[in-house]
Amino acid sequence: MRTPLCDRFGIDLPIFGFTPSEHVAAAISRAGGLGVLGCVRFNAAEELDAVLSWMDENTDGKPYGVDIVMPAKVPAEGSQTDLTKLIPEGHRSFVDKVLQDLSVPPLPDDTDERAGVLGWLHSVARSHVDVALNHRISLIANALGSPPADVISRAHEAGVPVAALAGKGAHALRHVDGGVDLVVAQGHEAGGHTGEIASMVLVPEVVDAVGDRAPVLAAGGIGSGRQMAAALALGASGVWTGSIWLTTEEYHQTMPGSTAMQRALVSATSADTVRTRVYTGKPARLLKTRWTEAWAAPEAPDPLPMPLQNLLVSHAHNRIHAADDPTVVSMPVGQIVGRMNRIRPVAEVIADLVEGYEEAVSRLDKTR
Amino acid sequence: MRTPLCDRFGIDLPIFGFTPSEHVAAAISRAGGLGVLGCVRFNAAEELDAVLSWMDENTDGKPYGVDIVMPAKVPAEGSQTDLTKLIPEGHRSFVDKVLQDLSVPPLPDDTDERAGVLGWLHSVARSHVDVALNHRISLIANALGSPPADVISRAHEAGVPVAALAGKGAHALRHVDGGVDLVVAQGHEAGGHTGEIASMVLVPEVVDAVGDRAPVLAAGGIGSGRQMAAALALGASGVWTGSIWLTTEEYHQTMPGSTAMQRALVSATSADTVRTRVYTGKPARLLKTRWTEAWAAPEAPDPLPMPLQNLLVSHAHNRIHAADDPTVVSMPVGQIVGRMNRIRPVAEVIADLVEGYEEAVSRLDKTR
Q1: Nearest in space to A187 (alpha carbons), one of A285, A330, A264, A117
Q2: Which of A44, A95, A116, B270 has the least CB density, counted as fewest CB within 10 Å?
Q3: pTM of the shown model
Q4: How many angstroms away from the CA of A140 is the closest CA of chain B?
Q5: Cα A305–A309–A311 angle (5° rounding)?
Q6: What GO molecular functions are on record for this protein (chains A, B) (predicted)?
């Protein structure tokens, strides 16, 4: 399974794997794909620096990338204190009541609680770019909209290509007009921030919109070799995957408190997700749990705009995380969750993708 | 492009084309696919009988099928008068006001107005089955849920296979358990009644759920050879298409008053659809127009359950149809509408599907 993208990035397989775990990202790169580390969880630049040093040393010299959230259109600045003042009291009391109703215990007094998610702020995201460019990275991806022009310029000066996610052909055109090198066409079925157009329609739309100006990765609904073959049949040069790495052994071993989340994912069907604004303020597909259902109730307030919604729920997320209850998980995941039924090593997931791909392509070949 | 389904149905191409126009259906069959005539528009059995006689004579002896709406779970019986009494006055006045706001003129006094859509009623659907079994049909499809057991038995006695649409793996299993011979996995991106799971995830889910008990057709998002190759890569044995036939020359020539609808479809993008209950009472994807937007307004009432909603809007549909205004169309269509940009003959659409399929499969073959 090779496409021209493999040569361009020096990888064996055109499989890009997004994950917040450096252990998973490194395993994806070591297995021949390109692991992309999600940086939004790092508030302190020093913390990211240390993790990327670890990546440099644990990827067998193979390429890896980083994913940084830089929402181009959101006025996402100001200190956390300033922003916190903008959160209505009614929203706070709703969150408190939901946590009580769902029997989510308070955090122990000695918890060193993570302060909000500052990675959504531009200044923090730019500090991530600074840090990442000092490491052996092969890609900077922006998880939300077109990356700012200065970030693209700095990446290009360092010889690092830039990727951006698109939910419409028009988004993709805006990205390449701004200098983006690699477009991720993310369909409705994807986990996290996602639009309304499904991969089957979106991928060829984006491929045709950007033409030969940039290769396109298909994202959304890809967890098997058949789906990877479908993505390439649609014109993609490779795939961008995220959800499928959440149920890996490496994720479990290195992300504290992931047991309840993995139990919830393993038992979920493809119908057990919901696209909602409750995670960040922008529509994102999450696992459907008692937490998302509480926000869908008639008495629930409308979620706040980004970045306020994430600040509003960040303490709740910490409590939910500590509660370790599969029915109250708050987790972005795509519809492919219905097929994530076992905890497996990263290398096995990759081997299955390759085997399934080969089988699908031979099967298609026989129809000619 | 051949799959075992071609031998089973005696067709050259595993392309099933659903359409309310007998001229389009016949052209699909003549071009090597299997045209499936939607019967819900026929209230009188005699009318359907005459049209199927025409099909018998205009398909060059090639196979064709019929699609009949038999909602298994809906208590869809009673005379139109009885049902009409169940429609709240507030809903009627809302529809009247919207039509006025949208400048949709009343019908001329001498209009021979179609009476509701009785095809949704079980007794009418069964009369369609009676009529169809007297013709040279190769398939009876049920557009909504599992077909009733007696209908499956009668079709099988006549040697006619039965197809049913599924939006989840569980639906598909229920269908084959009930004797259905062919499952149509219809993704979220499809036009008309459609579920939440996108084709990329749904097709392999349904294929694996039914195993070798029934072949699976992929529906939703399929309008090009690349998409057809993707569907087969996902494990489908063929494709079920609907939207793409709405912008054919044959449709235009034979469906009176389709000019405004076709103008609206040709200029729409993939983002210009909405999944809503306003057409029948069940969620269906429609072209987004000023009509659907009016129902999405805060002051709009919730749509009524099936079959009442269709009775409520049937007169409005007649007025909208006569108004011939592309901005006030009420029409089921999938997200593929973004690529339906020209009025073309059916044979050209089929030729493009075949050519694009061959190109996609050769391209995939080179990645091995």
Answers
A1: A285
A2: A44
A3: 0.95
A4: 26
A5: 130
A6: monooxygenase activity
